[in-house]
Amino acid sequence: MKKFLLIAMVVLFGVVSAWGQTVDNAKRPDVIESIESTSKIVVKQDSKLDKLIEDYLNKKDIQVVSNSGPYVGAGYRVQVFSSNAQRTAKNESLTIERRLRSAFPGYGVYRTYSSPFWKVRIGDFRTHAEARAFRAKLVKVFPELRRETYTVRESRVTIR
């Protein structure tokens, strides 16, 4: 019985060891090769993980290349106005919206009411840096709005 257990453990250990080794002729992902070539770190992992990493990186590259359609997702806008003054906020927001539409016709202007606030936001930007750059342009055109203007995160923007 002991002899059988010993043989079974040796066979099992050999199978597990052979299963966990990577195939030498398989190409390692560039990320792993870069890590190994620029440091003293040696990455030992199953070749299946190498394939998953390579597939993921290729998928990301494809998404970036095929980004010719509109982007719909999280992004940023520049908030220009927000007020809860019951008597004046609605008219002020309408005035600011019209001024923005005439000064920046290529950008979407969004006027919303979320009780008790009237808000006016402009633009659809994918990154915070793009929104900040636009805010700088906007403040040059409308310096009186400098104090109230800042970038805000939106859960959904559409970029064409």
Short description:
The protein is 48% helix and 24% strand. It is of the alpha+beta class and 160 residues long.
Task: State the end-to-end CA separation.
Answer: 72 Å
* Percentage beta strand: 15-25%
CATH topology of the largest domain: Alpha-Beta Plaits
**Strand segment count:** 4
Biggest pleated-sheet summary: 4 strands, antiparallel
Mean pLDDT: 81
Number of domains: 2
CATH architectural label of the largest domain: 2-Layer Sandwich
CATH superfamily of the largest domain: Sporulation related repeat
Poorly predicted tracts of residues: 61-66
Discrete helix count: 5
CATH class category name of the largest domain: Alpha Beta
Helix content: 40-55%
Oligomer: single chain
Shape: elongated
The strands making up the biggest β-sheet line up spatially as: 2-3-1-4
Radius of gyration, in angstroms, nearest whole number: 29 Å
Would you spell out the secondary-structure blueprint of this structure?
Blueprint: H1 2-20, H2 30-38, H3 47-65, E1 71-83, H4 89-103, E2 109-114, E3 117-125, H5 128-141, E4 150-159
Antiparallel strand pairs: 1-3, 1-4, 2-3
Notes on the structure:
By secondary structure, the protein is an alpha+beta fold. It folds into two domains: 27-67; 71-159, Alpha-Beta Plaits. It is 48% helix and 24% strand. It is built from five helices and four strands, in the order αααβαββαβ. The protein has a four-stranded antiparallel sheet with strand order 2-3-1-4. Strand 2 and strand 3 (117-125) form a beta hairpin. It starts with a helix and ends with a strand. Residues 61-66 have low confidence and may be disordered.
